[in-house]
TrEMBL record:
Protein name: Putative pre-16S rRNA nuclease
Location of the YqgF/RNase H-like domain: 3-104
Superkingdom in the source lineage: Bacteria
GO molecular function list: hydrolase activity, acting on ester bonds; nuclease activity
Keywords of the record: Cytoplasm, Hydrolase, Nuclease, Ribosome biogenesis
Cellular component per GO, a single term: cytosol
EC number: 3.1.-.-
Similarity comment text for this entry: Belongs to the YqgF HJR family.
Primary role: Could be a nuclease involved in processing of the 5'-end of pre-16S rRNA.
Origin organism lineage: Bacteria, Deltaproteobacteria, Candidatus Acidulodesulfobacterales, Candidatus Acididesulfobacter
Compartments in which it is found: Cytoplasm
Cytoplasm listed as a keyword: yes
InterPro entries xrefs: RNaseH-like_sf, YqgF, YqgF/RNaseH-like_dom, YqgF/RNaseH-like_dom_sf
Length: 145
């Protein structure tokens, strides 16, 4: 694989964005987008996808501890449906995002990042945890075949 993968951690207030390296092995936090208007957010995502030459979109799917969809899952599905109308030639898949925000929060606290800075970076870091988990899964599968 020689194209980047973009990961979206959808939130009602902010959308975290992460990118993989060109080989699809390492995830990096990219930025967050304020989620006030779908068209503005979608335009910004589309610009990132074009600029970074992304080949796939992975969207974190919030699954409850019981393994069932949550109320936010329904919002994510609506978001994906709308995103597919704007970004037509790129596959969009979902990936379980359980504990990604908590993991990102712990990571930032361990690095003594102040609360205000954590709020600014947590969404993109959570997206990078989701993406890294996805990448590790596909790369271990590819290495076992």
């Amino acid at each position: 694989m020689n194209q980047k993968i973009i990961c979206i951690d959808y939130g009602l207030k902010r959308i975290g964005v992460a990118l993989s390296d060109d080989r699809g092995t390492i995830a990096f936090p990219h930025k967050y987008i304020i989620n006030e208007n779908f068209n503005d957010a979608a335009t910004e995502l589309k610009n990132i996808i074009i600029t970074e030459n992304a080949s796939l979109i992975v969207v974190g799917m919030p699954i409850g501890l019981s393994g069932k969809q949550s109320s936010l899952s329904i919002e994510v599905i609506k978001f994906i449906d709308e995103l597919k109308k704007i970004i037509k030639n790129l596959p969009i898949i979902t990936y379980d995002e359980r504990f990604s925000t908590a993991q990102a929060q712990r990571s930032l606290i361990e690095r003594n990042v102040k609360r205000k800075k954590r709020k600014q970076t947590i969404d993109s870091i959570a997206a990078s945890f989701i993406l890294q988990s996805y990448l590790d899964g596909i790369n271990s599968t590819n290495n076992n075949t």
